[in-house]
């Protein structure tokens, strides 16, 4: 499914950063993202197939990740600017889906275990922090994240059964992310 696009991202993030004397920032982040897909575009793709199908069930993609952060901080009065780079390990829950044939009413469902897909992820971004209290900052983050998750799934037709069909594919995560940050300096 090369034409399925992610339409929304919900992100839970925990990050710890350490600022060295030379303004270099080292850190670790871990988090979870939940992504929904644009099923209209996916169904357009499947409609053009030899036997037209429609997605009747699709679980949102869920990724867990942990990564290393390297950045450099510039400070002017009460505002900090920090460009950064992240690299880390990410795991995608199995992105299974069910297809229903729109001509005959039979479905193709996933059969067997739902393995995890692993990937290295990269993120490049910029953080801007404004000091609102002595040790508390409010910030804005903008970044670009990418990862590629290879996976295989086994499809079987129901009712009536069929030979097992092995489908190999790749989920390509490409996301521009923005968000607000609240930080406390120790």
Describe this entry's structure for a reader:
The chain has 186 residues and is mainly β. It is built from 1 helix and 11 strands, in the order E-E-H-E-E-E-E-E-E-E-E-E. The chain has one helix at residues 39-47; strands at residues 6-19, 24-37, 53-58, 61-72, 74-76, 79-92, 97-101, 107-110, 117-131, 136-158, 165-184. Strands 1, 2, 3, 4, 5, 6, 7, 8, 9, 10 and 11 form an 11-stranded antiparallel β-sheet that branches. Strand 1 and strand 2 (24-37) form a beta hairpin. The longest helix is centred in the N-terminal third of the chain and has 9 residues, at 39-47. The protein is elongated, with a radius of gyration of 21 Å. The protein starts with 5 loop residues before the first strand and ends with a strand. The relative contact order is 0.17.
């Amino acid at each position: 499914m090369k034409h399925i696009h992610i339409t929304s991202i919900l992100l839970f993030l925990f990050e710890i950063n350490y600022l060295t004397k030379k303004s270099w920032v080292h850190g670790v982040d871990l988090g979870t993202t939940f992504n929904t897909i644009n099923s209209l575009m996916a169904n357009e793709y499947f409609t053009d197939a030899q036997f037209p199908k429609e997605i009747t069930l699709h679980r949102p993609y869920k990724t867990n990740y942990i990564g290393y952060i390297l950045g450099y901080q510039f400070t002017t009065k009460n505002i900090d600017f920090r460009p950064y780079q992240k690299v880390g390990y990410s795991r995608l829950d199995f992105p299974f889906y069910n297809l229903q044939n729109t001509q005959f009413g039979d479905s193709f469902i996933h059969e067997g275990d739902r393995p995890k897909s692993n990937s290295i992820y990269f993120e490049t971004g910029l953080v801007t922090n404004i000091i609102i209290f002595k040790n508390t900052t409010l910030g804005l983050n903008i970044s670009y994240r990418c990862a590629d998750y290879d996976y295989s799934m086994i499809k079987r037709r129901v009712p009536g059964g069929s030979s097992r069909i092995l489908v190999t594919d790749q989920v390509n995560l490409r996301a521009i992310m923005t968000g607000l940050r609240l930080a406390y300096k120790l």
